[in-house]
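Weekly modeling sync, notes
Attendees: S.R. (lead), two postdocs, one rotation student

Agenda item 3: backlog of single-chain predictions. S.R. asked that every request posted to the team notebook include the full sequence so nobody has to chase files. The rotation student volunteered to paste the first one in as an example of the format we agreed on. Action items at the bottom.

Example entry:
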Amino acid sequence: MIDHLPLAQAAFERMGDRFRGPGAADYGISPWALTVVMAVVAGLVLYFMRRMRAARREESCYHPRRLFQELCRAHELTRAQQRLARKIARRLNHRHPGAIFLDPAGFTQAFDMPQFLDQHDELRRLEDRIYPPDQPEPVESPAASR
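Predicted structure, as returned to the notebook:
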């Protein structure tokens, strides 16, 4: 069996010779072009991998300032109101400045603090902005329902 191996190998080596005729076109890509294409593909793969990793990192990170800014934007606070809210959180020793958006009791404490004695009007406006006072629902008049 081992004696027939060189004959079989020779037959397989020449197997593709019949497929190339004199009119066959050569669509081979040059080695330089292939290298450039591979480099571009590798660069794109690295770029997207880094973006995915950065996005995953952004989602899982602890960003108290960013959350505070988003809460301020959601409540449409002015810059002065944002500074006042941050100052209240600092005076109340909150580790996270956004904590004042969770509990209205912080404003009650702030009204009693000497640092805010001259800012009661601003405190009241800020509290009303974050925790709007309960307003009764409009009553529909009988004439409007007809």
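Discussion: group reviewed the output briefly. The mean pLDDT is 81.
Action items: rotation student to repeat for the remaining queue; S.R. to check formatting next week.
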